[in-house]
Records
---
Amino acid sequence: MSKTCKEKDRLPNLLLNEGPEVVGCIATVLEGGGSLDTAVREIAKNGPPCSAKLFRRIVEDSELRIECDLLTAISRLISELPEGCSSYGLALRMAVTAADAKDPNERTRLLKEAADISLRGLSEAGKTFAASLNAPCMAIFGLGIMVPMVLMSIMPMMSLSGLFGASAVDLRSIAVITLVLIPCAVLAMIAGINRRNPMASVSPKGSPLEFLPFLMVFPVLVLSHMLFDDWALSVCLSIVAASIIALVSGLRKDRAMKCRTKAERDLGHILLEIGNRLTSGIPFENSVTESLEGKKSLKAMAGAFRNEMQICRGDVEAAISNVFSSVSQDIADSLTEIYRTSVRNLVEAGRLSISLGRRINDRSSIRKSIRNELKGMCDTMYGTAAVFAPLVLGLSVSMLEPLKRLSEGIDSGATSLVLSIYLCELCSVIALLLSFIEGSINYRTVVRKMSGMCIVSLTVFMLVLRISL
């Protein structure tokens, strides 16, 4: 399938994921006193990637007079949306209707309805995606565990009975199937799952240098083999050691990401408090500072904002960007719009802040509910790769031990080596699957999940082998 076809297949889910942000941006501009033209240009310039591309076409058609006016260009865009984007298109129509409303209360009502439609569309897409995971995940379970167990243990035992004739089972062929064909088949299924995920986002992937600690596998592998003269044990020890190094080396980044996520969530709640203070007539700077100081985790940010306001020389928007954009660009843009409105009217700015806070919290709540729908499946796949697979495959190796004396074609040592390498591959592809399901596709997330699963999986595998032998 070509790249263009893949993008078209993913477009409905990507647009549904971006719908709440797009409607929120339009609502922010309109409630802040701006026009629909300003909102469209803002999305085209700074909006979510897929929607920004579509809205740039609207701007270009309007400027080049391909369409007579902006509303006609938006209507044509909505009519050309692919199948599956009905809630995205309906939300846009409601937002466009709100732009023509003369009564502020009616405009607010229409914008809220547009936001609700976009959120319901994303929620329904998330539930559909969660329900569709049962079959592919069961296929991955069977292909990733049962097939290797049959190939590596049951088939050699069956060959002893003469079921396959005089020829013995070829371990090399079985190793190629286990280490190459099965992981490739699982990766193909994972790619199909990712294309249907409404939570998938186009975000920075980070640096591939996150995998650098795994280079420690080679020296530790050589040293372990010199000490124990057991390739399977050496592979397990070397990968466990490298995984521990990868986890420890990324602890600072993990803590920073966790703190950033918590701060972003808290700032969404803070907008409601800022709105209440602005409505009471408290100036913008004091409202923001007092609201931040009221939250223990944001006190440091309150001091940073106060310092920026003292040295910004009147450029409040730059001060807001310097403090908040590193945590959340969405929050920074929202505070900028609130500030611009507060210059004209504090009460209107307060209402805008409350509206934005509710909108951001509603989006977070919907995405959290979708993740909760997927949590059971994610836990099952994690447990499969980390515990169940090494337990079953380790026991399957132990089943071969009594048969070694009956046939020279059975080599439990080689089988253990192949399965130890396969378990590493299985942890890698399951880590990729979990990242795709959660919609957080970046190198650090994959390395963290893979390292954790490898440590548990290979430890269980080694313990089962030692106990059974």
Note: The CA atoms of residues 70 and 221 lie 65 Å apart.
---
Amino acid sequence: MVRVLRWLSALAVGGILSTFTFLLLTGRYINDGPVLITLSRSHGLHAGDLFVLAGWAVGMAALVLLARDRGRLHAP
């Protein structure tokens, strides 16, 4: 049961983290920075987006570590 709750928690946080990342990448905010890669006339990868992507990668890696069950966090 603990393993299922850990996975459900990880999936929920991963979904929320991915949604916020999507919103930040598709929206406009103050620290956009220069366009590094143009994807279309109105969209591109900005320097500020790299910070968002790095945060997403760190968050997802933390979730994988959380969801992995190695038996260390279980009570005896």
Note: The two ends are 15 Å apart (CA to CA).
---
Amino acid sequence: MNRNLFLLFLLPALLAAGTARAAEEAIVSSKGISGLYLSNGNAGSFNGNTWSYDVGMTQLFDGYFDTGVMMNTAGSYVLVNLDQALSGGYYVTKIVIGTVNTITYSLYFSTDGTTWTGVTNAVGVSANGKKSYVVNDFATQVKFVWDTTIGYTETVNEIQVWGIDPSEMGCRHPSFTEWEAVPGTATCTEPGIDRHKCTFCGEAFERTSELLPPLGHDYVETLSRKGTSSSYGKGGISCSRCEWSAVFNIPIDLTALGGVASHFLVQFTDLSVSSYQSFSTPSRLINNNWSYVYQDWVAATRSHDEYVQFDFGVEIDLTEIDFAVHNHTQTVEFYKVEGDTETKIAQVAITKTSSGDEQRSKVLFRGVSLQTLRVRFTDSIGVPVNGTMPVGMTEIHPYGTVKGAGLLDVLRTKILLY
């Protein structure tokens, strides 16, 4: 019997055997088969007084996506040795990573512990929150790598490797069709999917698509009562495609509607900065700690080009900015940004006081509508960190309401008629 004819007889048997898996995927990673290492392969350690090695490793594999471990050594990695749990390893279906702050990391897998393959869409990725990465390949080891130095800040909170015992599988999926983006699968907040199929058994596999970003919310503004010169109005913002909504019965802290901007993360308020030093992250600007600490946000330089920026989903009426900076003489400047044009809307001169490490101030606004708020610093002194004196900020919270509900930029005048 020639080879082609033999395959014609064999194919139905392969399809019948591979149409369904005999076992469901499950979490196959655990603390007991994992270790923490430096980039040179020596034993590593977590940073921060609260993180002993045992506590940190337990945190990474306890199934809870809450508190993250601290790590400030770039190149450090967690190695999950699947071969210790099952000789020959597992068919790894996906890897799920949870992070507390936006960090840069990479995922790799290996069948021999020597040659490493980067997981698709997970090499040098900058992400925050719970992310799932499709593997669908055999592996004896999986490696999670911190790509950059983070500082004494919480980073990863969970590492989950999902897999199947190869002996319990049907078709081994020797080849696949090309990945194809599936139209219509993206939602307001979630990216679409790519799909490919095993060419033998037809089983379909999916992964997050980089070609189909989230749609973003289709914001609709409702003004139920206009603001006057003496009282705020009311209104709301909602999405025409999903159930997202925000009510503005009073001006609200706009950081409650978002946070630090991240790839494919859809939120009404996006916080970003021009630059930041490794020991601090932008998230510290909105963590509600108004006292100056060493890890507060500082830029790379003391240049006026450095900035803190908030981008809102739609134009809002800005009502107030509550902020704190390091206690030294400087000027904090606030701008409305439209394209390449910056318009200064306020500035606050800070004069060093005799006590305290920080100063907290508020700025009130009337008749100011904007979608992008930028904060710059005129500072000839800077914040003392690591032998440098860059600009920095301890905390900032912009408040606002739906457009038209802010205070009017007029004052009532009493007119006496004789």
Note: The longest strand covers residues 90-110.
---
Amino acid sequence: MSAMRFVAHLNEQDSRFLCYPAGPDSADRIEVPIEHAAGSPAAPEHLAKLRRLLGTHAAQVEDLYSKHDGFELYVQSPDHAGLVLFPISEWEPATQRFREELGEWGRTLDEAFDFEQHGLAFGEPAFSGNLFFLYDGAVYYSDHDGGDDTPLASTFSGFLDRIVDDPAKFLYDLGCYARYSDERTDTQWIPERYLSRQRNA
């Protein structure tokens, strides 16, 4: 059900964020229209790879990727987006890049959390340099500014539900990387509340 709920969320009409300006407290608010880009259904060979990589934990993930192989979420423009979930073909390369670049963060693979050593990177908050990992059925967050090995969600379906339940809060909790534009000034606008025709009917 969570995959269906997530896809339904992406198809909500008149999606937008109510945003407040970064910096000193302000009563100013703007509404920023947002869109989502979803890939085509995953090819059979990519779904076979998904099942091979995830084993007994594949079903919930396959349920979504059989509908769309990768996502760009909460997008205002190429420079202003919220989340990216990689196509299956990018999971292993993204994971390998992460492990090769750990030294740039002053860490070694031996010092990494178990989910970073053995999991699969499958997405990121856009422009953050941080990654979502699938490991042992749960979803984790690798944050180069710190962090721990507490799961974001104990299941992939739970991860999708956290996003849909409150997209603005989810983005804020990841480190407040999502910033949007009024297209007139250099002010950075932070999502405060998600709005759509369905949610405000």
Note: The CA atoms of residues 17 and 32 lie 5 Å apart.
